[in-house]
Amino acid sequence: MLLPLTTPYGLWALDVLGGLAAVWLAYKVVQHILRRSRTTPLTGPPNPNWLLGVGRQVEKSPDPALMYEQWSETYGPVYRVPATLGFSRVVLCDPKAILHFYSHETFGYVQTELMKRSIENIVGKGVLWAEGESHKRQRKALTPAFSNAAIRQLTSVFFDSAHKVKAAWDGILDSTSGDSEVLEVQSWMNHVSLDSVGIAGFSHDFGILHGKQPLVATTFDSFGHLKPSILSSLTFILGLAIPALTKIPTTFRRLIRQLNSSMGEIADELLNNMRKESEGEGNEKGGDRSIIGLLIRAENSDSELHMSQEEVMAQMKTLILAGYETTSISLTWCLVELCKKPETQMKLREELSQFSGSDPTWDQLTHQLPYLDAVVHETLRLHPPLGETTRQATADDIIPLSMPMRIATGELTSQIAIAKGQVVTVPIHCMNRATAFWGPNAKEFVPERWLTDDGIPGRAQEIQGHRHLLTFVDGPRICLGRGFALAEFKAVLSVLIRNYAFGFRDGPGTKIETVRGILPRPSVAGEKGARVPLRIRRLE
């Protein structure tokens, strides 16, 4: 029974809770002070709000990457930003420092408690959640499914999904009197991505491109239409210091529970079906057909690569989430950029025109279409689906710098001391398009920069990671599915550009903004939610 707050016992309970909260906060403050005493004194922007730090400022900014870049220009390549409740984050914008950070990730730098809880809430304790030896084991078990040989065999799946989109769009255009039609392309890119990962990963057709609407797809779409909530923002910002706040039942949190449940039901059904098949056919045969077969083998294995049933379920949900979110966002951004630059769209179409009667092979997509490759990587440079990496040091560390910098005491240093427990951030979006690394046209969509030896400036070449980008991060946690994502991106884009011309519904002055789903997404300004209506014209 709850005690009325006006009774002596109720007031006593409030006093006890308040006292415990004060003790906890004092403990955290002491920890923070001790960390700062062992971390190199760094300059940084002033604290606009003791409770929220710069969290709200970054969240509300139309371009957080530019904010990080401006701070780097003002305070140096490594600086400190105020975080919630008086805490702070150390931000790395130095290539050598970032290389050190990523190479020590999952052992020396691990996810914050906030991020761990968030990942567990969405997909469970899979490879995204795991750290250290557990992460190493899970990743090793999954690696064969993402080899070049495996992706080569899956490329036909990506083309098949793209041609399903073409058939649907042709049907819509056939039913209209004009030669073009306005279509909301983001939802179509969502659907082609989900259907592709279902068939390629699990031999399961979600059927969205054939008109089905499974609950998991409906739930995914709902994230793009959530209205900004002060409560959701506060729980996310304050969660860095108080992870328990992630349990507050916001609308976003309720959708996360629904998504977890719907993905879990699908994963459970697919796993049970594959277990029955593999029992009758042998694990090796079942494992040769899809990623799910590999997971079944890991579940049944007595080797060091064994996965628990919970881990297998988490991997499946992770792959569904990644397959839906990342590639669909990149495809949509790419179409937006090609609408801004019709001449670039035409140039890409000219390169692809050699495949008028057939689709390119995986080898051709990978090695023989330089402009397609350039357009894809320029999209990934400007619009990484994940904007930053934030981790916490597991031990005191010394981070080297590529060149000396001046710290808060006025001294020059070529290394930064980081204390155990210090939160460290790498701003991916900033590093991908900072003028200091990519030159004066860093903010522009210029695929041609990827076509010449001197197109990538020397400073940008200091950045490690895939093709000098941090889009897929780097080190032990470099994106396992990057080959899968690149092949799907190129295959789908090649079909669309060969068959349609794309333009903005409201003309070249159309404003594009970023809205939040599970990950940030593009949207035409004025639309409700993450919507990108484009005018599609069929090519003869």
What characteristics describe this protein?
540 residues; alpha+beta; Cytochrome p450; three-stranded antiparallel beta sheet; 21 helices; 12% strand; globular; monooxygenase activity; heme binding; Cytochrome P450
Explain this structure to me?
Strand 6 and strand 7 (412-418) form a beta hairpin. This protein is globular. It has one domain (8-538): Cytochrome p450. Helix 7 packs parallel to helix 21 and helix 14 (309-340) packs across helix 17 (370-382). The protein has 540 residues and is α+β, with helices and mostly antiparallel strands. The chain is 52% helix and 12% strand. Residues 283-289 have low confidence and may be disordered. It is built from 21 helices and twelve strands. The chain has a five-stranded mixed sheet. The termini are far apart.
- Poorly predicted runs of 5 or more residues: 283-289
Based on CA atoms alone, the radius of gyration comes out at 24 Å
Assembly classification: single chain
CATH architecture: Orthogonal Bundle
Tally the helices: what do you get? 21
Structural class: alpha+beta
CATH superfamily: Cytochrome P450
Strand content: 5-15%
Q: How far apart, in Å, are the first and last alpha carbons? A: 73 Å
CATH class: Mainly Alpha
Could you give the order of strands across the largest sheet?
1-2-8-5-3
Pfam families: p450
InterPro entries: Cyt_P450, Cyt_P450_E_grp-I, Cyt_P450_sf, Cytochrome_P450_monoxygenase
Pathway: Secondary metabolite biosynthesis
GO molecular function: heme binding; iron ion binding; monooxygenase activity; oxidoreductase activity, acting on paired donors, with incorporation or reduction of molecular oxygen
